[in-house]
Amino acid sequence: MTARVGVITFPGTLDDRDTQRAVGLAGAEAVPLWHRDKDLKQVDAVVLPGGFSYGDYLRAGAISRFSPVMETVIEQAKAGLPVLGICNGFQVLTETHLLPGAMLRNNHLHFICRDQRLRVENANTAWTTEFSAGQEISVPLKNIDGRYTADERTLDELEAEGRVVFRYLDGNPNGSLRDIAGITNAAGNVVGLMPHPEHAVEPLIGTGRTDGLGFFTSILKKLVGA
Amino acid sequence: MARVVVDVMLKPEILDPQGQAVQRALPRLGFDGIAIAEVRQGKRFELEVDGPVDDAALTRIQELADTFLANTVIEDFTVKVEPS
To answer: Which of A53, A210, A223, B63 is disulfide-compatible with A10, CB 3.0–4.6 A?
Structure first.
């Protein structure tokens, strides 16, 4: 038996296929989920992939938040279902308030696409146990609305509780406060980050590194104890 | 028909690089006669409402602005009924 990891497709999602492939390479079964379907098909975890759901109209993630599938995701995430939001998925998670803060236009106003070094700050979440705290990884980053923002009190709370999961290294790419690239909720089951681990899972592609695979092997290990 | 206008602005403490870019472009475009110290960019929504805009309707529109049109983590909003 293996774990079933759902990958949601919204209209405008781009990285659902890469994410499904990454889930499969990690040894889990990828289950495609459709935004209009409330049914999560009894998956053990859910990934919200990157892209431009609903064209990023209004604000990135603002309309996806009200899609039927998200009703169930929000309900089950609060009950402990592991959820990973990548890029646009992270934006959706902040819009739903499953994660605190909000994403804004990059401070330099440009779309950015590059390999990005990150430091893993928290290796205890459902999605990061295969890393070690302080480990440095490199995965692609590609977005225009990547500036993480929250008020000072929220930022202090995130830091104090160890809920900053990833921080940017080699310069802040977008003006994110405190170099935050990814965060988790208090329970550690919901994680969101701007960079794209699903694009760094095969040595033949991109950086030649497979640093992104750890996200998917982490969740598999958590779910089946493999 | 009545028109209800919802204006959404980034909170004052939030950096607005788009507004800054507009402000910086002003002298280059020849608009340098007046001292415009700052520009902030927002969004305006015009809701055309069939029927009366009574307190009940305004409460619903307030709710709609609060949960959907604005993200109150980063934005403030105002709701105004336009005279017809």
So the answer is: A53
Are A105 and B74 an interchain contact pair (Cβ–Cβ within 8 Å)?
Answer: no
Please give the residue of chain B at the shortest CA–CA distance from A62: B68
Task: Specify the 3-state DSSP secondary structure of A61.
Answer: coil
| Of A69, A89, A65, the residue nearest A16 (C-alpha) | A89
The type of residue at A67 is S
Identified catalytic residue from A95, A121, A130, A198: A198
Indicate the fold that domain B2-82 takes in CATH. Answer: Mth169; Chain: A , (3.30.1280)
Which residues fall within 8 angstroms of residue B75, CB to CB, at 6 or more apart? B8, B9, B10, B11, B14
Reported as a single tens digit per residue, the pLDDT across A121-153 is: 999 999 999 999 999 999 999 999 999 999 999
Check A66 against B68: CB less than 8 A apart: yes
Structure tokens at B32: 């340098």
Structure tokens given for A11: 């209209």
Instruction: Return the sign of the alpha-carbon dihedral for residues A17, A8, A126, A136.
Output: positive
> How many whole angstroms separate alpha carbon A182 and alpha carbon A13?
20
Query: Is residue A157 helix, strand or coil?
Result: helix
Q: CB B71 to CB A102 under 8 A?
A: yes
Q: What is the ipTM of this complex?
A: 0.86
- Which residue ranges form the domains of chain A, and what is each CATH number? 4-224 (3.40.50.880)
For residue A7, report the phi and psi dihedrals to the nearest 5 degrees: -125, 115
**pLDDT tens digits along B26-61:** 988 988 888 899 999 999 999 999 988 999 999 999
DSSP classification of residue B76: E
What residue of B is the nearest CA neighbor of A108? B17
Q: Which residues of A touch B69 (CB under 8 A)?
A: 58
Told to judge if A198 belongs to the known catalytic residues of this protein, a careful annotator would answer yes
